[in-house]
C-alpha cells in the first residue's frame, strides 16, 4: 500500500492542509483577483485579464488562416479545428469524435440519459442548458426577438431567422445533387432523400419505409384506424390534420383547393392534383391487382372498378353507365345542355369546370404545367403527361390486334380503325366517310374550292 503524503502546508485562514506548497499558494489565490468594472472575482490573474476583454470588446487572438478574432486563446484554438478538421475529443462509448470538449460532454448525455438542467416551474429536465432556457420562455411567454418586417415576435433567435426568410425569400441551403435551394436545413435534408432513396422511418407493423416522419404517422393510422383529429364544430374525426382543416372550411362556407397532406392552398383543382404527385409516399391505399396507390380509400374503390368493369351509376335518360358518380353528373349535361361554368373574360360557357379553366389559359397565356426535363410548359396537364413520354420513350397504349404501341390514347383509337374499317367522320355534302377527322377536314376543302 502506497504511503499517504503528509499534508505539511496549512492555510492560516481556513486551516485546510495540503501536501504541496504550490497547491496551498493556488488555494490562497481563490477569489483574490477582482474585476474593477463588475466586481466578479477570479482565482488567477490571467483569468481576470481574459474576463476584462468582455468589457473592452478587445479580441487580441487572431486566426492566421481566415483572420477572425477572439477574446480568449482557447476560443481561437477551438476555431482552428474548423480549418484543420481535427477532432481530438473522442467518445469512449460510440467512438464519435468532436473538436470541442464541451460538445463531447453534451454528446455523452445521449448515452447516459443524464439531464442535469431542471425547470423550477414544471420539473421537466434537459440535457443542455440552452434547451432549458428556451423551455422557460414557454412559461413566461417572453418573445424578445422581433421581426423588423412585420413586428411579429419570437422566443428564439433561430425561429426569427427562419421567419425572416419568408420576407426576404432567402434560400441558403443548397442541394449538392441538383442545386435546388431551401429556406430551412430540415427541408433540404428531407429533399435529399429523393436522390439517395433513403427512408429512415419504418412502420412497426408492416416494415414499410418512409422519408418523412409524418408520412409514417399517416400510414400507421391506415393500420390502426386511428383518427386523432376531431372537429370542434361537429365532432367528426380524421386521421390527417389536413383533412380536418379542409373539413372545417365546409362549416364556414369557404371553398378552396387544399392539399390535405401538407396544408398548401391552390387556386385550381388541377394544380392541386399536380402538386400532390410530390407526395407519392402519402398514397396509403394500394390496389392489390396492379399495385397503383391512392391518397383516399374512395379513389381506390373507383380505380378497382377499372379492373372489375363494374359501372354502378346508370344514366336515367339514355341508360349509359359509369364507374364514378362524378362522371355520370358530367355526362348528364349532354342531355340537359347545361353549361354552368362560364369564362369570366369572354363569357363562353362550358359543361365541365376543367374545360373552363383550360379555356381561360387561352386568354391569360398561362402554362402552369412544366416539364422537369426540358422546361417546356403546357396549359393542360394531360398534354404535359403525353409530352413526357417523348423523353421516357413510354408507349402505354397497345393495339390488341397487331401489338403496335402508341404514346397517346387517341392515336391508338385512330389506328384501330385500320383494322375495323370504321369511318365515323362523314362529309355532309357528298356523304364520303373517313377514319380520322383531319382527313375529313382536308376533303371538305375540295368542296370549298369548287364553290
From TrEMBL:
It comes from the Eukaryota. GO terms for cellular component: nucleus. Signal peptide: none annotated. One of its GO terms (biological process) is negative regulation of transcription by RNA polymerase II. It is found in: Nucleus. The keyword Flavoprotein does not apply. SMART domains: ZnF_C2H2. Residues 9-33, 33-60, 61-88, 89-116, 117-144, 145-172, 173-200, 201-228, 229-256, 257-284, 285-312, 313-340, 341-368, 369-396, 397-424, 425-451 form the C2H2-type domain. Keywords: DNA-binding, Isopeptide bond, Metal-binding, Nucleus, Repeat, Transcription, Transcription regulation, Ubl conjugation, Zinc, Zinc-finger. Pfam families: zf-C2H2 (PF00096), zf-C2H2_6 (PF13912), zf-H2C2_2 (PF13465). One of its GO terms (molecular function) is zinc ion binding. Belongs to the krueppel C2H2-type zinc-finger protein family. May be involved in transcriptional regulation. This is Zinc finger protein 665-like isoform X2. It comes from Octopus sinensis. The lineage of its organism: Eukaryota, Metazoa, Spiralia, Lophotrochozoa, Mollusca.
